[in-house]
Specification:
By secondary structure, the protein is α+β, with helices and mostly antiparallel strands. The chain contains 5 helices and 6 strands, in the order βββββααβααα. α1 runs parallel beside α3.
Length: about 140
């Protein structure tokens, strides 16, 4: 979904990963990226910070410095939130830039960056302790 407010272009996108759901809004700006209201540079866990910044690093600094991104994530664990933010940001950037080369770059780098990861938790079965674990047999 894209719209123009006061002459400025804005694009929004959604993504999910496991139990985490994310909304991302990309507008014209000065290269700022906020993750749940916090600048992405201040995220204390380095793996999460790099996972969220991956689409921007592939985009390039000269194009990245002209946009602002606001990412809101709810639910799930920290890595599920990071992956959901990564997918939502990549989708929003593809819509915002409207460059087929960027879309092909993201697809060739990692297919799940635009498609999302379809894996989910397997449900627990009847008379079992977990999804696959069965009661141990005793042969005495």
């Amino acid at each position: 979904m894209s719209s123009k407010e006061n002459g400025a272009k804005m694009v929004t996108s959604n993504a999910t990963r496991k139990k985490a759901s994310c909304r991302c809004r990309v507008t014209e700006g000065r290269g700022r990226v906020f993750f749940n209201g916090v600048p992405v540079e201040l995220i204390p866990i380095e793996v999460v910070r790099l996972k969220v910044m991956e689409p921007l690093l592939l985009l390039g600094k000269e194009r990245w410095s002209t946009i602002d991104a606001y990412i809101n994530v709810m639910g799930g664990g920290i890595m599920g939130q990071a992956e959901a933010a990564r997918v939502a940001l990549a989708r929003a950037l593809v819509k915002f830039v409207q460059d087929p080369e960027l879309e092909n770059l993201y697809k060739s780098y990692d297919r799940y960056m635009l498609a999302g990861d379809p894996r989910r938790t397997e449900s627990e079965k009847w008379m079992r302790y977990s999804a696959r674990r069965w009661r141990q047999k005793s042969y005495r």
